[in-house]
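for the record, two folds in this file. i put them one after another cuz i was lazy. first one right below, seq on top, structure tokens after. the second one comes after a little note so u can tell where it starts
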Amino acid sequence: MADPVAETSAPSAEANHTDLVARLRAELAEKTEQIGSANARAAVYEGKERSRIAAWQPEAEFFMRDFVNDEIDNYHQGTSLKTDVAPLGVWAQEYTNKADLASQGALAAVSYVASKGIKRLREQASANASASETLASTMKQNEELAEKNSKLQRDYDDALAIMEERQKGLETLQAELSRAGLMQEKFAFSKISSREANPPPVAAMAAPPAALETVKAEASKAATSGAGKANPLECDLMTSLLARSSGGLRYTHSNTNHAWVGAPSGEQDIASVLRSASKF
């Protein structure tokens, strides 16, 4: 005869097993969903982080490879430093693809900052060099302008000196003309109104002084003299004197009996007197 207790416990154990399996499956599905959500969030974060540090890669490659190799080539030749730092150049090219992204960010950030600083210092040095060249060019132009200014100042001083000499000469000429009666009006040549830039009115210049008219009249008379020449200075002096003389060619009797003032007999002519004077 079968045990009723055993028959009753068997269905109960089977039911508990079924419930346990169902519960575990539900928990597994829940955990799987949670893990999936976490992985999705992690993937989003990792993608953003990878994109962020990937933007530093060009600067990291410049600092870890280009700059370091240039420094070694220029200042550390004959050493093994280039071989020692070669892995860093490889790392700069590959660090964005590494699985452990969190451990790559710090070194990439340092490389980025260092690269930016080096480039900024180089630009400043280049700007300083350009400023030095501009300053040198400006100083040269300043020296040329100073030299031109000095020359202009010397020319100006020379012009003032010449103007003062000319003014003194004009004043002297004015005094001589006034003394000779050829100028009645006096000009102050130190004033601008008395210089050539502002000449006197045409009416005043058209009326010559009376003394000047007298001189011109005398010159006109000399031009119409018996010699028939326009310039009195071109006439023969002896002919002019004889033409205006009222005496003859003989020399009158001297009351003093002096041999040169007059001949006692009054017989000698001017030619004989000149010959006697040439022998004296």
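(here's the note) second protein begins now
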Amino acid sequence: MYMMIYDDIQKAERPHSISELTILKITALVLLIFVHSDLLFAYPAIMQPVEWFLLSVFFFVGGYLAYSSFQKRGRSLKQFFKSKILTLYVPFVAAVVFYLFLDTLMGAPTEPLAFVSQVSMMNVFAHLNSLYNWGTLWFIPFLLLFMAITCALERYVQSTKKQIFAISVLLLGTALLWAFNTPLRLDGLFNQYLLVFVFGFYISKFHLYEKLMNYKTALVALPIVAFFALDFSGVFNYTTPINALVAHIYFNTRSIALTMSLVLLALMALRRVKIPANGFAKQIADHSAFIYLSEPFISFVILTYVFGQGESFFASGPLFYLYQATRILVLLVVMPLGFLVLQYRPKIATPAVLHRVKVVYKNLLFRR
């Protein structure tokens, strides 16, 4: 399936972040843990919209933060992608190597082309993504690609209208490649989530966030959610390229309109509740890439060695939900607490504190 999340909320970018965005991202991480289980197959009608929602959260927040990060680095593509290579691509490659090694160690069939497809990020193409992908590692290549598209346009195309026109042409071109089933067609997720990323990018660019957080937006979003909650995909067929194109457009329109409306409503609700993004929440956000990339391994260890299950755990009975709770506890409580301890350890071990410890230690020795 996928693994989501990235290490893109850095301390230096905190002035551009908003508390409810952080809390919403953590909420999506919790939902991700449930989606990465047999619940997706046991309750597809419920879990598929949940999957759309959490992915929309990640790409929307990614787009929102990408603009401020790009501006902070003086609109320099070199400086921007230097930081993203360190915080996104390098951890991603390390995870690819680790999972390849783990597969080999366990005697599972390994495909060298899967490694090449992942590291080169060519798995954004539908054919390679379906054959040479470990399933859970598709998110970061798409995120980096979306950043490359939007930031390159922001750097070299001054007119926003021309930027939007270029993105529209790109979306139409990829939709046609999909409809005609060409070898160069991008994965279906490209069109679906590029628009979500762009939406977050331009909200940040034009400072529209505060303007959207009002009852007027809610009055528009609620009917959209009610309408697109209904699924009319059964009336479409794929007998001709035109029919396939129409069905593709409907599916993307439905998922984007439904989930982005829910994202805005969720942000408005979180703003009213006023949940603070405290130090613990920031630890989850700051180390989300590590949590994201380690989730399959940690889930495998818990599933195999704690609950004694095989590759799957059927979604039934209290033991299954205890397994989900254990994953949440380890990934979103224990690991962030560990990062919090490591963060404050240098502050604890200051020279003054170390000197005081030495004095106390010498006094104890002297008393003896």
